[in-house]
Amino acid sequence: MKPASSQSYLKVAGSQIVNASGQEVILRGIGLGGWLLQEPYMLQLAGVAAAQYDIERKIKDVIGEANTATFYNAWLANHCRKADIDSLAAWGFNSVRLPMHYNLFTLPVEAEPVAGQNTWLQKGFDLTDSLLSWCKANKIYLILDLHAAPGAQGNDIPIADRDTAKASLWQSDANQKKTIALWRKLAERYVNEEWIGGYDLLNETNYGFTNPADKNGCADSLNAPLKKLLNDITVAIRQIDQRHIIFVEGNCWANNYKGLLPFSDNNTVVSFHKYWNYNDLSSIQGFINIRQQYNTPIWLGESGENSNAWFTNAIQLLEENKIGWAWWPLKKLGSNNPLQVKLNPGYLQLLNYWKGEAPKPTVAEAFKGLMQLAEDVKVENTIYRKDVIDAMFRQVNSTETKPYHPNSITKAAILNVVDYDLGRSGYAYHDADSANYRVATGKNTAWNRGRMYRNDGVDIDTCNDSFSNGYCVSHTEVGEWLQYTINVSEAGMYDISFRTTAKDSAGKLQLQVGDKIIGDVKLPLTKDDQYWTTTTIRKVALIKGTNKLRVTILNGGFRFSSIQIQLLSKNKK
């Protein structure tokens, strides 16, 4: 199996996706969620705004229509640029999934000057053209995904920007005709573009067609309206474009394919989605069965929003079964994705106002915060989460651990506790909660209860210890451990000290160097969570060169900020 490099059109060959040379291509991609369509949770607006239309309305209420237009123009210009796609290529991605909002390409049916006609808007096409040019320059496939169709295709309101006061996609023949016309227009524009990987016709339909109690269509056995629309779109595309792959998603967030198979078109791929379940064969067996029964490729068109451990295990499972994938999303205000957008004070003030926790900001204050947010979505202004990329690529094929920072030790050094090694759970660290399996278990588990700094199971919070980088490990539990690879310039005896705070229960930890357990220490109780103490294990022998330290929690309940290493005496030659 060879990765896509300089080949052209992708196509279906039996149960495989192949390039023009007939080589199988495993798509390793990411979705550009939040760019052309803002979902509230990505902006920390879950529970505050229903969907993008509501976000825009709230912004207009504070800063006015003209300023709102300025903000959205900056947002669209900055959120995805060539530097983003260059980064994806450098990290190892070979494809991009573009979630499109129809309203950047055409007017809503109720806003058309002439009923039944389509007014085409240049903005969406120009943005897509630019993205395609950056993908072509990097030999990355671009998959077009209609994430928000006219009227919206489901009852999960934020996903498709649904306004329930208006007719949905399924309640309006005009919305369906506009959807078909949009795909025809896209096919006309991109028919001869070899780096278009395909057309993802309709994202995550979740609609009960036959039973209103089945709100998201998970039990629908026919899915007749969905099948008809997908077929009508396919016919429209094939009148223009016979070459590009068509990706088809089922009902129930792309997981219910009853009534949809087999496809009439022979260049079609089943696109399923996978979130918050176990990463075992049974979690994907149903789709493997579809691949075998219908001799059609399958693709995990969307997944993510979990821990690094979950990412590694999911991608390993998929690739072992020759299934391509597209993660979600590239960036947002949150740390469980490759790029984290910073939360600036002005935007935070606006958030707190909308939540009823702060007074209304002035127009100038709110506009400044929003424009700073639009500036901060530029890739160079985001926080790069190297642990996420490491988990998605290197760790999929290796259990080797690597230093998070160089950790060079001369005579003295301070290690930030949160800078434990990069690597898999069970190799670089162990934590009691390493992923969220709520779909399988019914229990919503926060793997990193502080939701900060890194995306492993290790719980990380902010702290005020002057010997730290502003972060500490919290919610420590018995049996958890962290590993640190350090490079020591001088062999000798060292004091190794631990900075901790423990208001409620005295902690205890154990130090191991290589295979040797050095000893354990009790940690003192402190008067509050902000009072830090130092506990030392004296005269620990470290060799010149690479040493691996492991700190194991024997009694938890404390917070842990840094490790101090101090040379006492050199080993004599």
Fold blueprint:
Layout: E1 11-13, E2 16-18, E3 28-31, H1 52-63, H2 65-79, H3 82-91, E4 95-101, H4 122-137, E5 141-148, H5 173-190, E6 196-200, H6 224-238, E7 246-248, H7 251-254, E8 268-274, H8 285-294, E9 298-304, H9 308-320, E10 324-328, E11 331-332, E12 339-340, H10 345-354, H11 363-376, E13 383-384, H12 386-392, E14 408-409, E15 412-416, E16 429-430, H13 438-441, E17 460-462, E18 471-473, E19 481-488, E20 492-501, E21 508-513, E22 516-522, E23 533-542, E24 545-555, E25 559-570
Parallel strand pairs: 3-4, 3-10, 4-5, 5-6, 6-7, 7-8, 8-9, 9-10, 11-12, 14-19
Antiparallel strand pairs: 1-2, 12-13, 15-25, 16-19, 17-18, 19-24, 20-23, 20-25, 21-22, 21-24
Helix pairs in contact: 1-2, 2-11, 5-6, 9-12, 10-11
Question: What would you say about this model in short?
Answer:
GO terms for molecular function: beta-glucosidase activity; carbohydrate binding. 26% of the residues lie in helices and 24% in strands.
Describe the structure.
GO terms for molecular function: beta-glucosidase activity; carbohydrate binding. It comes from Flavisolibacter tropicus. Keywords: Glycosidase, Hydrolase, Signal. Residues 442-566 form the CBM6 domain. The structure is a single chain. By secondary structure, the protein is an alpha/beta fold. The chain folds into two domains: 11-35 and 80-341 and 377-390, TIM Barrel (Alpha-Beta Barrel), CATH 3.20.20; 399-570, Jelly Rolls. It is built from 13 helices and 25 strands. The strands form six sheets. An eight-stranded parallel beta barrel has the order 3-4-5-6-7-8-9-10. Strands 14, 16, 19, 21, 22 and 24 form a six-stranded mixed beta sheet that branches. It is globular and about 85 Å long. The termini are far apart.
